[in-house]
């Protein structure tokens, strides 16, 4: 289906900033906290909560936790309280936060670049089994999330994670989140440039560093030197996209100010080429601008995209060069169109060293601890020590010798991980939803898995690249605005006039050269029960009426 942008972000008019009230920008003298979040961040750095978790909260239990730590600073260590079971979506907006809080936590393990060793995956599987009731979800930012975590167990979990080089540091909170990286960095034979050294340098220099631990809001980074453009760079706060400069060779094109949720906006190019060894400095300059000039007065205007909307790329580049880097950047070319429509690396592919990587598809990112351990064992038994997570909630086993590929594929498929999945399994994503998320209105993971099964049964011949993204609320954790079919969870009326779980439908979103936001289909809300019928109808009509080349 054709992507019809609801509102082309690049053409957004620049907004006039009120000089009287200010936006809470530190760089223009607004250091007095203007809301509760800014106050608790000023009172104590989010990173400092770790000591209290280790010495007080884990020993004295849940009730000993300071409310500002519980609902604020603990995020800096990847911890959110999960939703109390049994509270329906109709109560999400009317209950106080403490009424929705369970006494258990979601714990997000950051996996920068999506890179995992067999030993790391095995440890996550063990932690899931021992401390998280077997839960584990691969997120659409390459992380792994566990649920049902008790505060008493957190220090032991950190010890196990850190023993294998993993952490939860700044996995959530108003700070630099996980650095998304191409899952085939360093191995794909069509790679323009391997961004791995930049991912590592940013991580080692700045993650857990108080220089950037109090930002206006979360800050998302993506780095990929793959021509597939496999890191959703258009919707990150900062992204480095591989390009070949006619004089200087391979490097990165710099994109700034993308983000979804309220007021979705695509990132804009600053028109500059950044060599690999300067990526970390340029990244720090962009984050510095966000820290100093980012809007802190209102939480819903505190993402970098709002500053970018007001400044535009020319001013942003000028401030970056003049105030943060103190030098001019080199002009550079735009990236070409993504080299393929599916950007997830599913299937069997030859690496540049002659070995193979094998991408496979769990349903909507849902796995479990025992299965993660089995995947680790399977990879190890086939001579691999490296795996990757993808931004499509999928996984890849790297470094497989040719004579091991068939056996690995058979082993994965025996675990119900398809290497040649249907477009529905391949292209459907779901956020956490009402099972664990306090903001959710509807169920998503189970609904998405059922939807995949139904569509595979009803449309066995359908063979087009297709994305179906399900969100449990109006936020954008599953990127509904840039899906072919985006489903935004809300309560809707059924045929009897009863309020039931359902979705507002958005159609025709896309990334890549056709990037734009899906069009909200006015008045089209579908109940969860009607969802398979509705999508079947849309896809049959699309097949019957599509024009040549139309997505
Ligand atoms: Fe929770 Fe909403 Fe995000 Fe889903 S989209 S994980 S329901 S906040």
Automatic annotation (TrEMBL):
The keyword DNA damage is assigned to this record: no
Record field: compositional bias (Low complexity): 1-12
Domain Nitrite/sulphite reductase 4Fe-4S, residue spans: 172-328, 425-551
Single GO term (MF): 4 iron, 4 sulfur cluster binding
SUPFAM superfamilies linked to this entry: Nitrite and sulphite reductase 4Fe-4S domain-like, Nitrite/Sulfite reductase N-terminal domain-like
UniProt key word Oxidoreductase: yes
Cofactor: siroheme; [4Fe-4S] cluster
Keywords: 4Fe-4S, Heme, Iron, Iron-sulfur, Metal-binding, Oxidoreductase, Thioether bond
EC number: 1.8.7.1
Region annotated Disordered, chain positions: 1-43
Record field: catalytic activity: hydrogen sulfide + 6 oxidized [2Fe-2S]-[ferredoxin] + 3 H2O = sulfite + 6 reduced [2Fe-2S]-[ferredoxin] + 7 H(+)
Domain Nitrite/Sulfite reductase ferredoxin-like: 101-164, 349-414
Family: Belongs to the nitrite and sulfite reductase 4Fe-4S domain family.
Function: Catalyzes the reduction of sulfite to sulfide, a step in the biosynthesis of sulfur-containing amino acids and cofactors.
Protein name: assimilatory sulfite reductase (ferredoxin)
Organism (species): Streptomyces xanthii
Organism taxonomic ancestry: Bacteria, Bacillati, Actinomycetota, Actinomycetes, Kitasatosporales
């Amino acid at each position: 289906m054709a992507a019809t942008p609801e509102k082309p972000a690049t053409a957004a008019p620049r907004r006039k900033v009120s000089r009287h009230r200010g936006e809470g920008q530190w760089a223009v003298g607004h250091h007095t906290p203007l809301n509760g979040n800014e106050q608790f961040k000023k009172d104590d750095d989010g990173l400092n909560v770790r000591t209290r978790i280790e010495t007080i909260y884990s020993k004295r239990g849940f009730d000993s936790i300071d409310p500002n730590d519980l609902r604020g600073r603990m995020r800096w260590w990847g911890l959110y309280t999960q939703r109390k079971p049994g509270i329906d979506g109709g109560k999400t907006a009317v209950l106080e936060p403490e009424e929705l809080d369970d006494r258990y936590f979601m714990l997000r393990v950051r996996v920068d670049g999506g890179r995992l060793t067999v030993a790391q995956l095995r440890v996550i599987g063990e932690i899931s089994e021992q401390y998280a009731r077997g839960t584990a979800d691969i997120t659409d930012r390459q992380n792994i999330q566990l649920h049902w975590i008790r505060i008493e167990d957190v220090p032991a979990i950190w010890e196990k994670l850190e023993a294998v080089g993993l952490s939860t540091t700044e996995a959530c909170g108003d700070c630099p989140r996980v650095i998304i990286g191409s899952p085939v960095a360093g191995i794909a034979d069509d790679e323009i440039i391997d961004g791995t050294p930049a991912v590592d340098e940013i991580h080692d220099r700045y993650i857990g560093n108080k220089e950037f631990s109090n930002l206006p809001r979360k800050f998302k980074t993506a780095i990929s030197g793959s021509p597939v453009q496999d890191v959703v760079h258009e919707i990150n706060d900062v992204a480095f996209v591989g390009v070949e400069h006619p004089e200087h060779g391979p490097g990165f094109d710099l994109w700034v100010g993308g983000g979804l949720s309220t007021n979705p906006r695509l990132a804009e190019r600053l028109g500059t080429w950044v060599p690999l060894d300067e990526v970390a400095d340029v990244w720090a300059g962009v984050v510095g601008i966000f820290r100093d000039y980012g809007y802190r007065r209102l939480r819903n205007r505190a993402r970098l995209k709002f500053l970018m909307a007001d400044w535009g790329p020319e001013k942003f580049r000028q401030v970056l060069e003049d105030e943060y880097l103190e030098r001019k950047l080199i002009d550079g070319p735009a990236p070409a169109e993504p080299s393929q429509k599916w950007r997830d690396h599913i299937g069997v592919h030859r690496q540049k060293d002659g070995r193979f990587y094998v991408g496979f598809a769990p349903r909507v990112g849902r796995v479990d601890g025992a299965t993660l351990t089995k995947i680790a064992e399977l990879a190890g038994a086939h001579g691999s020590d490296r795996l990757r997570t993808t931004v499509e909630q999928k996984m890849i086993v790297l470094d497989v010798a040719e004579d091991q590929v068939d056996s690995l594929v058979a082993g994965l498929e025996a675990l119900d991980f398809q290497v040649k999945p249907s477009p529905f399994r391949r292209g459907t994503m779901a956020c956490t939803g009402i099972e664990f998320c306090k903001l959710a209105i509807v169920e998503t993971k189970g609904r998405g898995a059922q939807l995949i099964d139904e569509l595979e049964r009803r449309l066995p011949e359908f063979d087009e690249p297709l994305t179906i993204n399900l969100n449990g609320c109006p936020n954008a954790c599953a990127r509904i605005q840039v899906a072919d079919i985006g489903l935004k969870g809300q309560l809707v009326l059924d045929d009897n006039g009863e309020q039931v779980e359902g979705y507002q439908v958005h159609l025709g979103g896309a990334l890549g050269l056709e990037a734009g936001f899906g069009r909200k289909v006015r008045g089209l809300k579908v109940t969860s029960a009607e969802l398979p019928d509705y999508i079947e109808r849309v896809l049959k009509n699309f097949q019957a009426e599509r024009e040549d080349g139309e997505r």
